[in-house]
Amino acid sequence: MFKYFVIRVNAMEKKLAEYKCDTNEAISLKVVRFPEDVDDDSTTFHPEFSHQVFGDDEIAFGYKGLQIQLFYTAGNLSTLFKVKYSSKVTEAFDCVEPDDVEGKIREIIPAGFTSNTDDFTSLLEKEANFKPFGTLLHSYTVHNEEAGEFTYQIHKVEISCPGFREYHERLQTFLMWFIETASFIDADDDRWDFFLVFEKYNKDGETLYATVGYMTVYNYYVYPDKTRPRVSQMLILPPFQGEGHGAQLLEAVHRFYCSLPKVQDITAEDPSENYVKLRDFVLVKLCQNLPSFAEDKLLLGFSADMVQEAQDKLKINKKHARRVYEILRLRATDMSDEKQAREYRLEVKKRLFGPYRKNQRELAKMKKCLRPEELVSHMGQMDTQTQHEELEKSYQDVVEGYRRIIERIATHA
Ligand SMILES: CC(C)(COP(=O)(O)OP(=O)(O)OC[C@H]1O[C@@H](n2cnc3c(N)ncnc32)[C@H](O)[C@@H]1OP(=O)(O)O)[C@@H](O)C(=O)NCCC(=O)NCCS
């Protein structure tokens, strides 16, 4: 009897499992320019994350063949939101509730979307009226082998710009899908600056604009009369990633703040690995022609002149200037020359060793107050051999990252 019961429970669990869907796969995103894009799967992209909406397992329960469409018109980001599925768990089980998928998405997308594909397609006709918000900061072109030359514009916008608040509410929904710990900002706080990237394109002989990405920056106050702009969110929409727009945006924003006397330096909030790579590239590009970073000076070591010049001319703080120095020095170093290579290695390891040295000092302090058995357990964590191995590994990782920046400077700067 009990065995029969267990078999039935297992069978039921198996059947219920058929109603689980991976939300990263189920959500289809699209930025649409032409009516034919709506049914063209090649223009669809999917979230990298959906845990902030659907929980850590990124699963929606209760549906078979779940499809969540979140399509946006390319410029204005007018939204189509549609949920489709082939069957619902309630059709097979009376008392099992499916997740409220629609409700969860409604919590993050602003009202005013349509759920009707024909209505959405007709909204595309209004895209010709869409013009980029704010003032033009920078414009650049990108040459594509297959598609030809494209022009892009970077704009700075105030929240008070008519229509921008609503547009920003639509735009920021993308953060949930592409930034692991995204949160929406209080756009009413007047310390926020907004920067947008648009692509110009041609449709029936008219120039239209497509949204490419954006950045939000918070202006922190620094006593007594300075500000410290902190990059908070940065997103280049996936169809445009890897084409250099991130670097263009960061450089344009950096140059903008450099031109303001009240700005002390430019920082970032909890920067991701990809952001740091981008920043390294941009800062190296900006610093490489400063006199204090000239090749002969680089080989003499990290200097106060470098710190001063990076700070005064480019609002770059000491920590970032140090990374720039290490990257440029690597470029200037002949690594096949044993002496030069050794000097470089020691220079970088000396910096990396900083935290280990702090550990050693703490250990010395601990020795004075810990009982012997406690001390032994702490000593274990700080074993010299392990320290050396870890230091070598960190060094190799750092240099590998630096080489990628140097390669990018050589090919794309
Ligand atoms: C991180 C992010 C902003 C970078 O934007 P991006 O436009 O893809 O950045 P770029 O195109 O300038 O550089 C990305 C890569 O493309 C490469 N690239 C740039 N221009 C290129 C070109 N014309 N041809 C080929 N490759 C190119 C770069 O070398 C770089 O490669 P790497 O990562 O190996 O160094 C973007 O990926 C993104 O929005 N990610 C999700 C959100 C996020 O992580 N935001 C940052 C923290 S808030």
From TrEMBL:
InterPro entries per UniProt: Acyl_CoA_acyltransferase, HAT1_C, Hat1_N, Hat1_N_sf, Hist_AcTrfase_B-typ_cat-su, Hist_AcTrfase_HAT1_C
Biological processes, Gene Ontology terms: subtelomeric heterochromatin formation
Site (Interaction with histone H4 N-terminus) location in chain: 192
Record key words, sorted: Acetylation, Acyltransferase, Mitochondrion, Nucleus, Phosphoprotein, Transferase
Keyword presence, Cytoplasm: no
GO cellular component terms, semicolon-separated: chromosome, telomeric region; mitochondrion; nuclear matrix
GO molecular function: histone acetyltransferase activity; histone binding
Pfam families named among the record's database cross-references: HAT1_C, Hat1_N
Taxonomic lineage: Eukaryota, Metazoa, Chordata, Craniata, Vertebrata
Protein name per UniProt: Histone acetyltransferase type B catalytic subunit
Role played: Histone acetyltransferase that plays a role in different biological processes including cell cycle progression, glucose metabolism, histone production or DNA damage repair. Coordinates histone production and acetylation via H4 promoter binding. Acetylates histone H4 at 'Lys-5' (H4K5ac) and 'Lys-12' (H4K12ac) and, to a lesser extent, histone H2A at 'Lys-5' (H2AK5ac). Drives H4 production by chromatin binding to support chromatin replication and acetylation. Since transcription of H4 genes is tightly coupled to S-phase, plays an important role in S-phase entry and progression.
